[in-house]
Every structure is written in structure tokens, then in C-alpha cells.
């Protein structure tokens, strides 16, 4: 072979070797790129973010209005949820729970950034009329979905809600409310111990609370309704189960100011920027008698129970503490949260609000007072709340700083509770509410 041919052959061989040496890493890069893209598409179908990003967004307290919420539910495999056997009335109310919202012809589409508002009620029709009237005057209310959650069935309360025509409205009824079971648990069961009865001496059933008192269905319904409502609104309704934004919760004795809706929207938008560690937003100070400081700043303080809103990420943190919530010997849901659930989060639970209230507590009667002739509280139901012009328009500024009130007054970790929640049946029903939308078929007892 000529020298030139030999040299040319050697040159071609060396060139192919160099190409192969370059091609190997190139192929590896292409393969790795395909794997990465495949993984991103797979995680996107699960929630739009890779696992690390999902974890970081799920663990941030406040999150955005459309945050990707943590979906995994931790259940105790040793606990079997058991729900009471429903009566005909309870079953008929459950059927009503599945009905779609009303007024959709008048309000056919809910805009992006709209609020879902949950109004929970018992049986104070005079109060409810005032709240409904106040809501009808709220700017932007036609954009909202109003969900009214009933503890028990009372025709006058039902009629008032049926008359709402200023927004989409949906009614839900707690089908296991003690008020629906006159002669069976969770109502009054024949053979139940009363007051401070000694179970052995009387031959009755029941577990006393830490003060020796047996359960009162009228009292335990407070906590049962709130917990059933929360689980249902977040995990059991078609209208909300895929909603990750903030939901606003109000009671039948909260007078809502005309600027409340717009102020809530402003606070929701500002929270991730101004107070990323805040868990919620509030329409009023945690002190129910306070009107606000009037500062030119936002306020971060202890989470209150007047007009509070949080998102699904925060709900997941609350739901994860179901055992603590259901085991604490305290019949008030809010005191239970302050004394045991919030402290278990490990950091102060701050809520963001404006320097002026946009809702007011006007009731003098407790939630289940004033219904019987022997325990009538004095209240004419007028609920007069004086409004200034500034309360009728949005009054929160985006450029305001945030003042943090670090000293949190009131109920805290270490408070042992007022009792009323010692019966194991109430605790098991409470825990069953936390599981009922996450297991296939809860048992009926």
C-alpha cells in the first residue's frame, strides 16, 4: 500500500475514533435530558411542580391564592371511622347537600380571584337576618359563592337562606348534628348519664369530662359542627374540593362591612409579600371588642375567630392535627385551636389584617343560648353597628408596612380546657369526620 494511502487510512481511523469519543458524552446528555423532561411532565401531571418545589410550597404557611397544596392525607390504620346511622330527616338533608348552588342563572360565572364564603349558623333567626342584610350591602358580593352550613334543621333559618338573591348560594346541613337525633347518639341516648351522675351507681353510660360532668348534646354540637363543616368544605364538596385559594369563614353574629370583600382580596394578595409566615387573614382584631388601631400599617397578630380566611395548605396542617383536636377536653372549637392545635405547629400562628375592622361581633347570646325558656339571654337582636364612610370602601394600602404584635393574649398552650368533651363517643365521632372523605365506606353504628 502506498504511504499516502496508509497515512490517509490512519487519518480516517483517527477521525472516526475522535467522533466516537465525542458522541458518547453527547448521547449521555441527550438520554439524561429525555429522562429529566419525562420526570418533569410526570410531576406536572401530579401538581405542576417537582417534588422539592411542591414540598416547599406546601410547607409555607400562607402560600398564594392558587398555591399547590399538599394533597397527601396521613391516616391512622388502626382507627376505623364510624358514623351514626342516619334518620330519615338526616338522610333528606344529606340529599340537599348534593344540590348545586342556587342563583347561577343570575350569577353564571365566578371570576378569577373570587372568594368562597362559609357562613355557619345554628338557630338565631334575628341574627341571621342582620348578617344576610349586611352581606347584601358588601361591594363585590355578587362575585362570591356563599356556602351556608346549618347545625340542625330549623325551618325559619332555612327560609331566610332560601331568600338570598345577591350571589350564588349553597346550603349544607350537618347530617350528624345532635339536634337531628332526639333519642339516639349523638343526641340524647336513653341510658346516658346526666350532669355529674356516677356511672356505676346509676347504671348509666358515658365518660365524664375532667370536671366530672357528662356530655350535653347541645354543648358538644358546637365543636362537632365546626369540625364537620371544615372537613366537608375542604374535602367533601364538588364546588371546593379542587380549590386551593382562601376560604372566608363567618358566623351568624358577625356583621360584615361593605368593604369586607375587597379588603379580603387585598389581604390575600398582600400576604405572600408582606407576611409570608402568616397562616391566615382576619377581618377584625382577635379581641372581639376592639375596632382596630387606626394605624397606617397592616397588622400581624394572633389569629382571631371573626372573619378568618386561610387556604388548603393551612387546612392540611390543621387536618393533620385531628387527633389533638378531637382528644382535647374542650367543647369550643376556637379554644381547642388556640390551646392545642396552633401551638403544635411549632411557630407563632399569625394572621394578617388591616388597622380597622371590616367585620364586627354583635351578638350578646352564645351560639346555643336563648333557645329555651329556662336560659334566655337578654338581647333584642338589633345588632346595631355604627359604620363610618371609611368602612364602606376598601381601606388597605399596598405600600403599608406590617406591625407584628408578638404578645399573644388569651388561651394558649398549657390551658387544660373548660371540659364538656370527655365522652369517648364524641371523640371518636370527631375523628371519624376527619376520615370520612378519605376512606371508601365509613361504618355506620
UniProtKB/TrEMBL annotation:
Binding sites annotated in the UniProt record for substrate: 151
Q: Where in the cell is it found?
A: Golgi apparatus membrane
Q: Which residues bind Mn(2+)?
A: 253, 361
**Cofactors that this protein relies on:** Mn(2+)
Q: Which reaction does it catalyse?
A: an N(4)-{beta-D-GlcNAc-(1->2)-alpha-D-Man-(1->3)-[alpha-D-Man-(1->6)]-beta-D-Man-(1->4)-beta-D-GlcNAc-(1->4)-beta-D-GlcNAc}-L-asparaginyl-[protein] + UDP-N-acetyl-alpha-D-glucosamine = N(4)-{beta-D-GlcNAc-(1->2)-alpha-D-Man-(1->3)-[beta-D-GlcNAc-(1->2)-alpha-D-Man-(1->6)]-beta-D-Man-(1->4)-beta-D-GlcNAc-(1->4)-beta-D-GlcNAc}-L-asparaginyl-[protein] + UDP + H(+)
What's the domain of life for this entry? Eukaryota
Q: Name one Pfam family in it.
A: MGAT2
Instruction: Report the membrane topology from the UniProt record.
Output: Single-pass type II membrane protein
The primary site where this protein sits is Golgi
> What is one Gene Ontology biological process annotated in the Swiss-Prot or TrEMBL record?
oligosaccharide biosynthetic process
Q: What class of enzyme is it?
A: transferase
Q: Which UniProt keywords apply?
A: Disulfide bond, Glycoprotein, Glycosyltransferase, Golgi apparatus, Manganese, Membrane, Metal-binding, Signal-anchor, Transferase, Transmembrane, Transmembrane helix
Which parts pass through the membrane? 23-41
Q: Name one GO cellular component term.
A: Golgi stack
Q: Could you tell me which residues belong to the region Disordered?
A: 44-67
Cross-referenced Gene3D superfamilies, in alphabetical order?
A: Spore Coat Polysaccharide Biosynthesis Protein SpsA, Chain A (3.90.550.10)
The disulfides recorded in the entry are: 193-204, 275-278, 326-430
Q: Which GO terms describe its molecular function?
A: alpha-1,6-mannosylglycoprotein 2-beta-N-acetylglucosaminyltransferase activity; metal ion binding
Read off the SUPFAM superfamilies from this record.
Nucleotide-diphospho-sugar transferases
Cite the EC number. 2.4.1.143
Q: Which PANTHER family match?
A: ALPHA-1,6-MANNOSYL-GLYCOPROTEIN 2-BETA-N-ACETYLGLUCOSAMINYLTRANSFERASE, BETA-1,2-N-ACETYLGLUCOSAMINYLTRANSFERASE II
Protein name (database record)? Alpha-1,6-mannosyl-glycoprotein 2-beta-N-acetylglucosaminyltransferase
Amino acid at each position: 500500500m502506498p504511504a499516502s494511502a496508509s497515512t490517509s487510512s490512519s487519518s480516517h481511523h483517527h477521525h472516526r475514533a475522535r467522533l466516537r469519543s465525542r458522541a458518547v458524552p453527547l448521547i449521555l446528555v441527550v438520554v439524561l435530558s429525555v429522562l429529566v423532561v419525562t420526570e418533569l411532565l410526570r410531576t406536572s401531571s401530579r401538581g405542576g411542580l417537582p417534588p422539592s418545589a411542591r414540598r416547599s410550597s406546601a410547607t409555607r404557611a400562607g402560600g398564594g391564592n392558587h398555591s399547590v397544596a399538599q394533597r397527601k392525607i396521613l391516616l391512622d390504620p388502626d382507627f376505623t371511622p364510624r358514623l351514626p346511622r342516619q334518620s330519615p330527616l338526616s338522610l333528606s338533608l344529606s340529599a340537599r347537600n348534593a344540590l348545586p348552588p342556587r342563583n347561577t342563572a343570575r350569577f353564571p360565572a365566578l371570576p378569577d380571584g373570587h372568594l368562597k364564603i362559609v357562613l355557619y349558623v345554628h338557630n338565631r333567626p334575628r341574627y341571621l337576618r342582620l348578617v344576610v342584610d349586611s352581606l347584601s350591602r358588601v361591594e363585590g358580593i355578587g362575585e362570591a359563592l356563599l356556602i351556608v352550613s346549618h347545625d340542625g334543621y330549623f325551618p325559619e333559618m332555612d327560609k331566610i337562606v332560601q331568600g338570598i338573591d345577591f350571589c350564588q348560594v349553597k346550603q349544607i346541613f350537618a347530617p350528624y348534628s345532635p339536634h337531628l337525633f332526639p333519642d339516639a347518639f349523638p343526641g340524647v341516648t336513653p341510658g346516658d348519664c346526666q350532669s355529674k351522675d356516677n356511672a356505676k351507681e346509676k347504671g348509666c353510660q358515658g365518660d365524664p369530662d375532667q370536671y366530672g360532668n357528662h356530655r350535653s348534646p347541645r354543648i358538644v354540637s358546637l365543636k362537632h359542627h365546626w369540625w364537620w363543616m371544615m372537613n366537608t368544605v375542604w374535602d367533601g364538596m364538588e364546588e371546593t374540593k379542587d380549590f386551593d385559594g382562601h376560604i372566608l369563614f363567618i358566623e351568624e353574629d358577625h356583621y360584615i362591612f361593605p368593604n369586607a370583600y375587597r379588603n379580603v382580596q387585598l389581604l390575600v394578595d398582600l400576604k405572600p409579600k408582606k407576611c409570608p409566615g402568616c397562616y391566615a387573614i382576619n377581618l377584625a382584631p382577635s379581641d372581639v371588642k376592639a375596632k382596630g388601631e387606626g394605624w397606617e400599617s397592616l397588622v400581624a397578630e394572633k389569629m382571631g375567630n371573626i372573619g378568618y380566611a386561610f387556604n388548603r395548605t393551612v387546612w392540611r396542617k390543621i387536618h393533620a392535627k385531628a387527633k389533638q383536636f378531637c382528644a382535647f377536653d374542650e367543647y369550643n372549637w376556637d379554644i381547642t385551636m388556640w390551646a392545642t392545635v396552633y401551638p403544635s405547629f411549632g411557630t407563632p400562628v399569625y394572621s394578617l389584617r388591616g388597622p380597622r375592622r371590616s367585620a364586627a361581633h354583635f351578638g350578646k347570646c352564645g351560639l346555643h343560648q336563648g333557645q329555651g325558656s329556662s336560659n334566655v339571654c337578654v338581647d333584642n337582636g338589633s345588632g346595631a353597628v355604627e359604620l363610618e364612610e371609611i368602612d364602606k370602601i376598601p381601606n388597605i394600602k399596598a405600600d403599608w408596612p406590617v406591625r407584628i404584635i408578638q404578645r399573644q393574649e388569651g388561651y394558649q398552650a398549657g390551658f387544660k380546657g373548660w371540659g364538656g368533651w370527655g365522652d369517648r363517643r364524641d371523640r371518636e365521632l370527631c375523628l371519624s369526620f376527619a376520615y370520612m372523605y378519605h376512606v371508601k365506606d365509613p361504618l355506620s353504628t
